[in-house]
Amino acid sequence: MRHILVFAKTPYTKTPYDQWLAGTGIVPVLVTPREYAQGYSHLPHVHAFDAYDTNQLVEKTALRLARAFDVEAVFARAEADIVRAARLRELLGLKGQHTASALAFRDKVVMKDHLAHGPVEIPAYRQVESAYTILGFVAEHGFPVVIKPVSESGSLGAAIIRDEPELDAYLADPWRGTSEIEVFVPGQMYHVDGLVADGEVVFVHPFRYLHDCLSFRDDDWVANLPLTRSDPLYDRLVEAARAVIAELPTPPATAFHAEFWITPDDRLVFCEIASRTGGGMISGMVRHAFGIDLDKEWLYAECGLPATIGVPVYRPAGALCIPPRHGLLERLPSAADGQPECVREEMLTGAVGQEFHGGVKSGLFLAGYVVDGDTEEEVAAHLERVATWFSDNSRWRPALSGGGAA
C-alpha cells in the first residue's frame, strides 16, 4: 500500500482526498484542524489539532507519520501549510516544492526580490525593519502607500495609508509580524489561476475581480469572473503569469494564483503570486467553467499520477463570497427562500446563533456561491442578483459581546 501525507486545512466537502485517490492504490494520511476532523473521520489515518496554524505538534506528528508510513509525497493546499510542507519534503528527501521555492511564493519581499529585474513591472517596495523604514519610504515615495504582512493571504493585515493621520493611526497599532511597505497601485485587479504539472503550465486562465479584495472590511461581497479569450487583456495577463512562473523557482507540480493590476494608464503591474489554488470559491468556479478540478489535478501531479484534464469546454460561471456582518446571525437564506436558479454550488461556513464581527480576510466568508449564465455579462448580473437575494433573506441583530468568532 502506498501513502501520501496531507496537510488538510480544508473541510472534507471541499477536498475529499479518499474519493480523489480511489483506485490509485494511494492512501492519504491526514493532519487537520480539529474543526475539520469529523468530516474526515471515516478515513483510517486522521490526526486532529487545536490551534492548527501555530501548533508545532503538527510538524512533529507529520514527521513521525511520514516516516512510519514511508510516504512518497507530501500535499498541502493551504497558504499556512506551504512552508511547513516544503521543509518536511526537504527533510525527508522527497520530490516537490522545497523551502527556497515555498518562501519565494509566500514571502512577499523574497518574491519581489526574485522579480525586481524581471519581465513584469512591480511596485517600489521595502521590508519594514522599524517605523523609521516606513517614514523613510513615505518621504521618498509619498502617499498613498500599502503596508502588509509578508506572509499572510486574503489581504489580512493590509493597510492603505493615504495621509499623515492614517500613518499615525497605523504606527500607533502596527501589524505585529514582519511587514513590507510598497507604493499604492491604482486600477482594476485581476487574477490568473493555473496548474503546473511535470514542470509545464498545463492550464492557465485570467479572471476579473468584481469589487476588490478589501471589500470584506466594508461588509461587502467580492466576486470573480473569467475573461473571454477575445478580451484584449486575456493574452497580456496570461503572458505575465507565465513570465512570473518562469522567473520564480517554481516547483514541478503546483497550482498557482497570481494577482495583477491594470492601471488607469494601462500598465500591467504585479501584485503577488501563491503556489496554491485561489481562495474563496475560485476552485469551484474553475470546476464549473472548465470542467477541471484544480485541487484534484494538483494532488495527482504531486503524486506522480497521470492528469485527467481533457480539452476544457468553457461555460460562463462566476464565484461570489459574502462576508459576515457585525452582529448575531439570526437567519440564513435557504433554497426555500427562492434561491436564484443560476446557483450551481453553495458553501455556508457559519450557523444561526453565531456571533460575528465583520470579515477577517477576503478568503474567509460566511456564504460562497458559484453561479452560471449564458454570457459573462449575464453571470455578472447573476452575481449581483444572488448577493441581493442573500442580503434580503438573512437577518442579524446587534452582537451580545465585544468579542466573538468571524
Describe this structure in words.
Helix 3 runs antiparallel to helix 4 (99-106). An eight-stranded antiparallel beta sheet has the order 13-12-9-10-11-14-18-16, sandwiched between helices. It has a four-stranded parallel beta sheet with strand order 3-2-1-4, sandwiched between helices. A four-stranded antiparallel beta sheet has the order 5-8-6-7, with helices on both faces. The protein contains eleven helices and 19 strands. The protein has helices at residues 17-21, 57-68, 82-92, 99-106, 108-115, 131-141, 164-172, 234-247, 282-290, 294-303, 376-393; strands at 2-7, 26-33, 46-49, 74-76, 125-128, 145-149, 159-161, 179-183, 188-197, 200-210, 222-226, 254-262, 268-274, 317-322, 326-331, 343-348, 355-357, 367-372, 395-397. The longest helix has 18 residues, at 376-393. It is α+β, with helices and mostly antiparallel strands and 406 residues long. It starts with a strand and ends in a 9-residue tail after the last strand. Helices cover 28% and strands 27% of the residues.
